[in-house]
Amino acid sequence: MGNGGRRRRSGRRPQPHRVAPVSPGQDVATVWSPFSPHLAGASPPPFIWAEGRFHSESDLHVSERRAMHSASASRRIAYSGARACARAAMATGGLPPGPVLKGRSGEPVWPSSEVVGSLSHSRPFCAAGIAMRDDVPGLGVDIEVHRRLPDEVRSAIATDAEYEEIRTSLKHESMNSVEEILLFSAKEACYKALCRSGQALTKLSNIRVNDFASERNSGSLHGRFRGKAPSNSLRACSLLGMFQQDVDVTRVIAWRVRPCAHGEPLGLACGRSRYLR
Question: 120-148 burial, b for 16+ CB within 10 Å, e for fewer?
Answer without folding.
Answer: bbbebbbbbbbbbbebbbbbbbbbbebee
